[in-house]
Recover the amino acids of this structure.
């Protein structure tokens, strides 16, 4: 069964004067343990789609099922609980909590979201911090590490809760190309090790090639991939 | 909860200057309240002590209607001897009562053989009276602290007006209950200062002399003054005495006695109440300081951390936890302000005691104010500050918890 099932998903934004069609009848499936990328120019609907998959927003029409749940049925509290249980997020600007150390940033969702007991928490954080190669920087604060290191911490934070799906919106946009490759390679390795599905958006043509499944978005429509009339790039 | 506390403290440290300024403002407010409460409370307690311990006692028992016409000092409203004996027997065995003293009060003429004026007289049992109002002798400006038969303590106002000195012989003339007049010579053994000011015209003589002048075969008591072991249980003791004396009835079967506390007998109670009102308003000011400063800081904190709120909401932090996180910050600010403020306030109270504050009260000169601080006051101020700090954080905290993560993440 597909981890994500999108069926004729549309998203419109009403302004005072016009209606913006951010997504138009998008249909696709994403299987578990996939390494998927949505590509497209700015304004093509990548972020809108990731926000919908991430239960941060709701479709105007159509059905979007993530991990067996129709996200349109979730209220604010239910959405938070769903995200905490099933999803991990990696942001373009890293979005680490500045008052917490590297270790504490990774530990944060286990305490604040999943209420994991201390012993298990320590084991999981130690394992994840080691997996992303940040053990030596565990006690440092975000302002004391580089952009690539921050994104590695963000990857660890997203994976430490053992989510089924990690969403990354332009995860390499603020990194140099070498670091970007390192981060993408890390994400791929984590997918291989943990079986987590990764869905990320990018407009970096060099990174696009790292995706195993590729969807191209143009003006809110799927230009290539499932539902576009063309097979997705594998 | 510890992790919430840790994050809250780190967020406060993150904005050092702002946190320092806000905490200082709260601290200053707490210090001001602590010192004010301490000084005003001690002043009030000292004043009440002066009034009750040198004149009024804690409670007084009278015949019904006596207090209403106390300006006339009516002899026909004195207690019958058997009624006093009953009261005395009960007071002697009451565990709440430390001491009691009967008084015969009457108005009379005071003459130095050249001039005559009116005087209010208190016939007292010296031993009982000093146990009940131990500061009475502190009012003696000149003379002996022992009151024997044939001696009179004269208020300073009359002594000066009639140029009476210690050892002078004076005459007291009084009208008896049956309308006849009687007089008796006394030796002035002490000049007595008034508690409340220069208007005092109260003299003291031995209770047996008072009964002689008034031609009472057995002393008919005007009032019984009671000193309690625990002053802070005044109301409870008064209610107990009212119940205990309810079975003393007049010929019509109605209760004969009234029990009054010092609060009902002294106009100073209104001043004491004013001190309480001032203290209340000072606390209101503290509430306003804490409320405005913390609300301001927390609104700023939410506004500056919108993206951060979006991040923690996006990764699944429940709205309740986000709310608690911000409330915890306000709570921590309140605790810091309360703890530091209390410590500095207590330190200042100690310093004030070392320096010593002197003041005058009525004719009492050079009273040394010993400032004390009731632990309950410290607790109340701390609870107010912390509760208001939490209350001030509620609105910003709710705002943070209700933010849509998608909009918060877009915030620049």
């Amino acid at each position: 069964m597909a981890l994500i099932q999108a069926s004729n998903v549309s998203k419109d934004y009403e302004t005072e004067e016009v209606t913006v069609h951010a997504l138009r009848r998008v249909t696709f499936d994403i299987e578990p343990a996939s390494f998927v990328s949505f590509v497209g120019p700015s304004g093509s609907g990548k972020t809108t789609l990731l926000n919908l998959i991430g239960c941060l927003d709701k479709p105007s029409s159509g059905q979007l099922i993530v991990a067996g749940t129709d996200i349109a049925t979730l209220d604010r509290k239910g959405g938070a609980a769903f995200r905490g249980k099933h999803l991990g997020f990696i942001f373009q600007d890293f979005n680490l909590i500045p008052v917490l150390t590297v270790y504490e940033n990774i530990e944060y969702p286990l305490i604040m979201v999943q209420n994991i007991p201390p012993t298990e928490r320590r084991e999981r954080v130690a394992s994840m911090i080691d997996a992303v190669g940040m053990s030596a920087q565990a006690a440092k604060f975000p302002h004391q590490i580089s952009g690539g290191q921050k994104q590695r911490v963000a990857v660890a934070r997203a994976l430490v809760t053992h989510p089924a799906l990690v969403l990354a919106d332009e995860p390499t946009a603020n990194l140099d190309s070498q670091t970007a490759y390192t981060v993408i390679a890390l994400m791929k390795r984590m997918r291989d090790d943990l079986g987590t599905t990764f869905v990320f958006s990018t407009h970096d043509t060099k990174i696009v090639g790292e995706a195993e499944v590729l969807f191209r978005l143009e003006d809110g429509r799927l230009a290539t991939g499932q539902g576009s009339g063309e097979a997705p790039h594998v | 909860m510890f992790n919430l506390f840790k994050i809250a403290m780190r967020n406060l440290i993150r904005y050092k200057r702002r946190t320092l300024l806000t905490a200082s403002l709260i601290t200053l407010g707490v210090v001001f309240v602590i010192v004010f409460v301490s000084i005003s409370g001690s002043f009030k307690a000292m004043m009440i002590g002066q009034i009750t311990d040198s004149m009024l006692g804690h409670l007084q028992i009278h015949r019904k209607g006596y207090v209403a016409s106390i300006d006339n000092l009516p002899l026909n409203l004195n207690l019958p001897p058997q009624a006093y004996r009953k009261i005395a027997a009960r007071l002697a065995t009451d565990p709440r009562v430390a001491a009691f003293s009967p008084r015969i009060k009457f108005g009379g003429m005071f003459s130095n053989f050249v001039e005559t004026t009116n005087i209010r007289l208190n016939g007292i049992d010296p031993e009982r009276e000093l146990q009940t109002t131990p500061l009475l002798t502190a009012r003696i400006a000149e003379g002996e602290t022992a009151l024997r038969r044939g001696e009179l303590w004269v208020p300073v106002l009359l002594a000066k007006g009639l140029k009476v000195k210690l050892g002078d012989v004076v005459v007291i003339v009084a009208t008896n209950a049956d309308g006849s007049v009687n007089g008796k010579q006394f030796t002035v053994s002490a000049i007595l200062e008034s508690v409340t000011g220069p208007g005092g015209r109260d003299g003291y003589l031995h209770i047996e002399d008072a009964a002689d002048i008034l031609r009472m075969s057995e002393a008919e008591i005007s009032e019984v003054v009671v000193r309690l072991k625990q002053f802070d249980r005044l109301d409870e003791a008064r209610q107990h005495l009212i119940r205990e004396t309810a079975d003393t009835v007049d010929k019509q079967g109605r209760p004969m006695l009234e029990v009054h506390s010092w609060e009902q007998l002294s106009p100073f109670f209104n001043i004491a109440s004013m001190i309480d009102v001032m203290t209340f308003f000072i606390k209101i000011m503290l509430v306003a300081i804490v409320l405005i400063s913390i609300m301001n800081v927390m609104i700023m904190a939410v506004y500056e951390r919108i993206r951060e709120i979006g991040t923690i909401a996006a990764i699944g932090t429940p709205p309740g936890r986000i709310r608690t996180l911000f409330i915890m910050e306000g709570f921590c600010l309140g605790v810091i302000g309360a703890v530091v403020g209390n410590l500095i306030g207590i330190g200042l109270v100690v310093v004030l005691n070392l320096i010593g504050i002197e003041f005058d009260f009525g004719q009492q000169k050079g009273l040394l104010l010993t400032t004390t601080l009731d632990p309950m006051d410290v607790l109340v101020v701390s609870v107010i500050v912390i509760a208001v700090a939490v209350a001030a954080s509620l609105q910003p905290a709710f705002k943070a918890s209700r933010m849509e993560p998608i909009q918060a993440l877009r915030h620049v």
Observations:
- DSSP finds 13 helices and twelve strands in chain B.
- Chain B has two domains: 2-50+270-410, 65-255.
